[in-house]
Request: fold
Amino acid sequence: MENSEKLDIGIIGCGGITRRHIEGINRLKISGLDVFRIKAVCDRNRDNARARAMQIENFTNESPQIYGDFRKMISDVSLDAVDICLPHYLHHTVAITCLQSGLHVFIEKPLAITMRAAKRIMETRQHCGRVLAVGENYRMTPNMRTVWWILHNHMIGSPRLIIWNDISLRMKHSGWRDNKLEAGGSWLFDGGVHLADLDRYQTGLEPIKVYGITRKGAERREGKPVTVDDLAIATIVFERGVVSQWIWSDNLPGHNILRRIIYCTKGSITASYGAENFFRDRLEKLSSNSSILSQLKRDLVNMMKRNMDQTSLQRFFPNGVEDSFAIELYDFYLAVRDGRKPEVDDVEAYNDMAVPLSIYESSYLGEPVLIEKIKSLKIENYQREINESLSIT
Reply:
């Protein structure tokens, strides 16, 4: 591709997250990075597809074609790539078909519903020689980039302990996300890939062993069946002896907790994920550098920016854009244009998936598991039911 050439894309799946992708593309355009041309949208629910088409037309003045069948869309429309925003159980079949059709693929996390399904995607991508990027946007928010920068520069020493606590009570049914055979698991899996990615990215260390316990209390929500877990506790051992402890539940009444803290040898930083928690984050440093003690997180972002070279700054925040959905999509565009690996490719996403799925497998066995055995498909007890239901071999 030439530097000025746009990437012609089709969007497959027009649910809520697709809106954020389209907003990200619009933000890129406003910032002078008009690099995508959305030629078609596809969803089995035509109302959803029409809503996304209207959203696109509002800022492009061009109306994308609307499809209900993704195979017909990629056959009819001349595309360079697809953006897949579908329920987890559809990821592998749609991604593999698109790769085999010669298309580059951007796919929402997780890469697939099981490790075996993800491995099939990886094998296809390697065989077809296309670019595949996974929508792991948490690491690309300004606050999470800043946490990486603080740890990377040893401003509070070396990591020792990471704590993630997320406890709440959810009363509403979440549709396919409450079905194990369609979601793969609860938020422990859906959100756990985010947390695994943050732990790995920010510390620069790989997880080795996991001991996990999962429990299921809710049989129904709003009168509808629930087949995913609603409570999990896990200890994840990383390289160099660093430990990450996760406690999660969406079915515990009373006091809500949402926090993520990284303890290092010289201090700690509350590293809550997601832009919503941006200004709640704070740095607690136990060292002689008192100038950092009272810094607001925004000041730390600005400090990071002042200390970065222009190439790194443009990679982190292209043309000043801070929207994480826009940034991940622009990274995908550059990967296709320049023939390079995207920041979060299928291998990176595969390693992220292995962490929460190790928790499930450990709970099933009642003993710790080595993550390498999850990645090599030597342990698949929890996942077996899903693989069999979807004929994943």
Remarks:
- The domain at 7-136+326-344 is CATH 3.40.50.720 (Rossmann fold).
